[in-house]
Amino acid sequence: MRQLIQNIRARKPNAFDHLVTAVILLAGILIGLETNPSLHARHGELFRRLDLALLVFFAAEIAFKLAIEGRRPWRYFLDPDQVAEDRAHGCGPRAAWIDAWHCFDFAIVALCLLPHILPLHMHSEFLPMVRIARILRLLRLAEEIPKLHVLVNALLKSLPSITYICIFLLLHFYSYAVAGTFLFGAQDGDHYGSISRAMLTLFEVVTGNGFSPLMRDAMARAATAGYASSTPVIYYTTFVIIGVTIILNLFVGVIISEMAVLQKALDERQRAQCDERAKRAAAARGESAAASTDPATERSLDLAALESQLAAMQALLARIRERNPTT
User: Fold this and answer.
1) Please, which contacts does 150-156 make with residues 24 or more away whose CB atoms are closer than 8 Å?
2) Which of 129-133, 253-257, 313-317 is predicted most confidently?
3) What pTM does this model have?
């Protein structure tokens, strides 16, 4: 039990977290079953009791994790690895110490508890938020599954870079929307009658919906529209190449690079933990070896060796006297 508590506090894999993961999956399945009208009509009361039992379990989980922190329950909301790393470098408290996932867990459970705490006349106001909170429980899997945790963290850490990519993508869409309005607006008002319609059309194009028919229709109207038949080809192909092949791949590249950085940091942290455990084991072996070779023990061992040697010499001298009685 003590080892389990230590693993929970250190955020290491343990049986309790595996149980929490299974319960989160059960909660997700229960929410899906409740969307079936016939099932909800026949087993609505059972669903309600199961949801209450799950809520009690999640509340007990939070209370248990707060309780094992002893007199400093606020440590539940801190990242122990980040705290230890900063303290090793002499850094003081900062925002990076906060464990966002544990804060998220606490907020979800607190939100689900509101209808059971507030008066009845306020339930209708918080019912939509409670339903959203029940769905958000599934996001806790990102905390319980290490690989998924790395993926979500990589996505969150890449948001600043993704923001600039989105700005570049918006400029790309806007430029081609203006050009498409000038080129095809008079002949194809449904798709290019305004900048907003043109941007919506280009969004459909970048998702692969209706790219070829639009280009061929524009090529067929080239003679009456006053532009060359190759203009739609150049317009659509360059838009797709820049918008899909280049810009969208930037999203993938940024997220993968962040995943590589986080995975490397995770591997280094695990390696450091293994090295620390090896050092502690070596130190324990060294202490036991030192304890077994203290001065008193060495003296007793030397005395026993001398006594055995003296006994051997006495036995040898007795045999010599037996062979030579005159000596």
Assistant:
1) 150/259, 150/262, 150/263, 150/266, 151/259, 153/262, 154/255, 154/258, 154/259, 154/261, 154/262, 155/255, 155/258
2) 253-257
3) 0.59
